[in-house]
Amino acid sequence: MSSFAPGRLSGITAPAVDARPLRRVRHEVRDGAVVMAFSAVASTALAGAMLLVVTLAGQGA
Predict the structure, then answer these.
(1) What does the pLDDT look like over 11-48, one tens digit per residue?
(2) What is the number of other CB atoms lying within 10 angstroms of the CB of residue 1?
(3) Spatial distance between the Cα atoms of 49 and 37, rounded to a whole number of angstroms
């Protein structure tokens, strides 16, 4: 017989229960849409700023 006794495990604790609710798929989709929208706005603003700089630099030549 083995000396294993279910009630005598020292050093092993039950995993902590997370108090936060699970994120739903709609939250993940919303976060993804926000990242895509921010990326589109940031890219468009950067492209517009670069176009403005190039246009102004071309007029000075």
Answers:
(1) 677 666 678 888 899 999 999 999 999 999 999 999 99
(2) 3
(3) 18
pTM over 0.85: no
In a domain, 6, yes or no: no
Tokens 């039950």: give the residue: 14
How many CB atoms lie under 10 A from the CB of residue 2? 4
Helix or strand or coil: residue 31?
helix
Domain assignment present for 4: no
Whether residue 51 is contained in a domain is answered as yes
**Spatial CB neighbours of 50, under 8 Å, sequence gap ≥ 6:** none
User: Cα separation of 26 and 24, whole Å?
Assistant: 5
Which domain range does residue 44 map to?
Answer: 24-61
